[in-house]
Task: inverse folding
């Protein structure tokens, strides 16, 4: 039987990985993407907090609804109206509390990343740092990260020869970027030689264009300096 609820998983594996030649392979330095920035990761207990808030809201609603039905409305209309108003009041209070808990639980935690020449560095909460050397990265897996059936990011798994690290990447509030190419892990996949770089990634922003222009300018200055040094040697 096919599990229709199973989330599709996309695996990006380094070339020649099946033959055992992937270890030590990475993209040439002049083709690598140098970038740094920030992104958000979902809290590991996000679903627990959200579902707990839903249950508490449902229990609160059921409790006060039953309390309003304990008295016969036709015998004392005034008491019935008072109880019904009390039910509506606590229903709204429970709904507000539930909304606050969900908003706090889904706000995410901010992380930073640096795509350098030889490694990809991620710094998470509590100054937890993970360093991935491009030559050691074996594969990058991704699958949709959903909440209430709505896609809000990716569950990214970075696999090396000795470990696997997962990140619950969620979309930023500042820009609607829903493709994997819009995530920082795209730079890791490209620099590791797993993916090919696209000149026109979807969802590109002015910040990305500016970063690419600065990177191109730095490379041009380095080439000019090398040419000058060669002229002095000649």
Result:
């Amino acid at each position: 039987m096919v599990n229709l609820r199973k989330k599709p998983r996309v695996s990006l594996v380094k070339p020649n990985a099946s033959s055992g030649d992937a270890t030590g392979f990475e993209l040439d330095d002049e083709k690598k993407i140098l970038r740094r920035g920030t992104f958000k990761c979902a809290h590991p207990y996000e679903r627990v907090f959200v579902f707990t808030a839903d249950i508490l809201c449902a229990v609160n609603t059921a409790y006060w609804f039953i309390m309003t039905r304990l008295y016969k409305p036709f015998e004392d209309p005034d008491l019935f109206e008072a109880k019904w108003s009390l039910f509506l009041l606590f229903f709204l209070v429970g709904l507000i509390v539930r909304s606050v808990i969900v908003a706090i639980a889904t706000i995410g935690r901010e992380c930073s990343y640096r795509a350098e020449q030889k490694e990809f560095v991620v710094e998470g909460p509590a100054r937890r740092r993970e360093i991935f050397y491009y030559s050691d990265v074996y594969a990058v897996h991704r699958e949709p990260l959903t909440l209430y059936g709505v896609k809000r990011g990716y569950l990214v798994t970075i696999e090396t020869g000795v470990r696997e690290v997962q990140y619950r990447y969620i979309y930023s509030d500042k820009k609607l970027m829903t493709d994997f190419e819009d995530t920082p892990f795209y730079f890791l996949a490209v620099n590791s030689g797993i993916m090919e770089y696209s000149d026109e990634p979807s969802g590109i922003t002015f910040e990305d264009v500016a970063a690419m222009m600065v990177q191109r300018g730095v490379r041009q200055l380095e080439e000019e300096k090398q040419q000058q040094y060669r002229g002095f040697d000649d």
